[in-house]
UniProtKB/TrEMBL annotation:
InterPro entries: ADH-like_C, ADH-like_N, ER, GroES-like_sf, NAD(P)-bd_dom_sf. Keywords: NADP, Oxidoreductase. SUPFAM superfamilies: GroES-like, NAD(P)-binding Rossmann-fold domains. This is Quinone oxidoreductase. The keyword NADP applies. SMART domains: PKS_ER. The keyword Nucleotidyltransferase does not apply. Residues 7-322 form the Enoyl reductase (ER) domain. It holds the Pfam family ADH_N. Transmembrane segments: none annotated. It comes from Paracraurococcus ruber.
Length: 324
């Protein structure tokens, strides 16, 4: 099969052996694969959890038809089913995924490209907003880094779960202008040093109960100012820096619960539970087409290197997808 792999000469499309599913895995004929920020690190030779290094097939999410299943896969997944999956090795004609990370596509006319945009965003943001952020109906929330596909999904999930006020933070004015299409009540310009004051003003001086932070370093202390007393900050990503000054006194004064999350150190069982919880809360909205992501651009598998460069330029809005 053709696959996009990491080599000493950069990312290349090469012929490699077809993967074989283990007892609890599903073999999928991939039709489309979504790009994620972590793919850039893997493409440059960095490790991402257990992935990384020369010979690695890139790709954390994909959609396609089930070809075969392992001997211990539940009967709810069978050959011929259309599925979306999170896992590894998605930039390829065939990929395997744990059965608990596969979700049957809705019976609606959802295409492969749209399906490939959803697994990582749905799982990541349900886990951040609901499970770790503990968002309750009537509360307010700020999504930092909201212009990413995951961020856009986070705003929609928050609205679907009954948030009173959804705020989205971004330095990109063109992106902020479109946030209202994805559940945002107020777009916050985080390039303005006074952005925490904007959040406080919007919440009557109280601050937001939940912040989902994909930026970290450059907004860390601003988040503390913008968070309500007894609020929750969930650290998902570090696009603005992995290290920065941190106002421990303000953290204590506001009695903020600060939670770090990543899929890289989670067990198979933990990720299955994340997917199960997400589907319990959100699948009806997915089937109804209420949770969606814009597709910025679609590349053929052969142009995966160009697709990764397009992501690296950071000028896209929504998801970049490979057709396989």
């Amino acid at each position: 099969m053709k696959a996009v792999i990491v080599t000493d000469q950069g990312v290349q499309v090469r012929e490699v052996p077809d993967p074989k599913p283990g007892p609890q895995e599903v073999l999928v004929r991939v039709r489309a694969a979504g790009l994620n920020r972590a793919d850039l690190g893997v493409a440059s030779g960095q490790a991402h959890g257990r992935m990384g290094g020369a010979g690695t097939i890139i790709g954390l999410e994909f959609a396609g038809e089930v070809v075969s299943v392992g001997s211990e896969v539940p009967g709810t997944i069978a050959p011929g089913m259309r599925v979306m999956c999170s896992g590894s090795g998605g930039y390829a004609e065939y990929a395997v995924a744990d059965w608990g990370r596969c979700s049957p596509l809705p019976d609606s006319n959802m295409g492969w490209v749209q399906a490939a945009t959803l697994p990582v965003a749905l799982q990541t943001m349900h886990d951040a907003v609901v499970t770790n952020g503990g968002l309750q109906a009537g509360e307010s929330i700020l999504i930092q880094g909201a212009s990413s596909g995951v961020g856009l999904m986070g705003m929609q999930i928050a609205k679907a779960m009954g948030a009173r006020l959804v705020l989205g933070g971004s330095r990109n004015p063109a992106a902020r202008a479109r946030f209202a299409e994805y559940g945002c009540d107020l777009a916050v310009d985080t390039a303005d040093q006074a952005w925490p004051d904007t959040v406080l003003e919007a919440t009557g001086g109280k601050g937001v109960e939940v912040i989902v932070d994909q930026v970290s370093g450059s907004v860390a202390n601003g988040n503390l100012r913008a968070c309500a007393i007894l609020g929750r900050i969930v650290n998902v990503g570090r696009l603005g820096g992995a290290k920065a000054e941190f106002d421990f006194d303000l953290h204590a004064l506001r009695r903020i619960r600060y939670v770090g999350v990543t899929f890289r150190t989670r067990s198979v069982e933990e990720v299955r539970e994340i997917n199960r919880r997400m589907r319990a809360d959100l699948w009806a909205a997915v089937e109804a087409g209420k949770l969606r992501l814009p597709v910025d651009r679609v590349f053929p598998l052969a142009e995966a290197a160009a697709a990764l460069e397009h992501m690296k330029a950071n000028a896209h809005f929504g998801k970049i997808v490979l057709e396989c």
